[in-house]
Amino acid sequence: MKDSKSSGNLTFMSVLQDYVLPFLCPSKYPNLGIVMAGAFGLTFLLQMIWTGYPDEKLFYSKTSLIGYSLITLCRLLCLLLVYVLVTEHYKIQDHHTWGRNPGLGGFFMAFLVGVPAMLISVGVHNLFIYLELKLENPIPPQLYYYVTSEESVWGILLLLIMAVIFPILVEELFFRGLVYAVIPDKWWLRITIPALLSTLFAVNRLEFPSLLVIGLCCSIVRYYTDNTLASCMTRIGYFCIRILLGQILSLQDPDLVQNAIDYNKTTLYSSIIGVSLGIVMMLVLIRQLRTIRYLQKNEDIRCGSEDGKPLSIPLREHFHADFIIGAAFLALCWIMS
What we know:
The protein is mainly alpha-helical. It folds into two domains: 30-92 and 143-201 and 325-337, no CATH class; 101-142 and 204-305, no CATH class. 71% of the residues lie in helices and 0% in strands. The chain has helices at residues 2-24, 32-52, 65-89, 94-97, 104-134, 153-182, 187-201, 208-225, 228-244, 265-303, 321-335.
């Protein structure tokens, strides 16, 4: 009788030590859960402060360019803080987050990917707005936006830095750098997870399809070139082509249309053509990017380089309590938006 009780106690203690405590305690490896918990936990805290603080107590409006720049800077600092803490604590090397040099041709190909990325994302955005109007769904307001127009040199410079340069560098370094480095070395995981998390980070339902397209394009470039700066070049190419072709394929403002009947059919047809053309161009460029990755692998085999090897993290290490906490904070960011 005593032996059965002792075996029962041993079984309980073994389950506690082998399963319960490892689940509750942080992992010894860098993992997706700790990254999500840190990034989205800080983002949710900042979002609650931003939405709860009275607008009349500020010397600027939240929807002004200054207010938009301030909240954008704070959100990017949250990502940057998590990046620094995780990389320093777990001693993650730069070649895992930044990648390696794909050569001038690789950067040029990454920039060219911005062309089909722009065509597909803008077209998908316009088609999604039309679908929302067709289904008579209410258009939700954006959480972070600005309504003031700046024509001064300093205003344009501030907009360029806070809406283009800083988000590109920090978001790509975090999602296509840190997140990319800690997830398992499966091509479909390394493309979809960073793209999905970067899209969800924006907390914008109307822009979700178009941002997901951009995220997938950047993740594809990151995977095939093995370089984070290359994905930055893709987003730079996206903005450059969007400025050049803005008159041909413009981004539909949902505030300018009331229903599907008022929707400009020219915009609808041009969006369909843009998406179709962008997909064809993307397939051609992916074929060229695959050549870059093939050459990199051959060079690694020939030289015995360690730069191309991913972090060896067991799959179970990603699923701790911090993963649930990170997913909960992410859900709260969307629910409270």
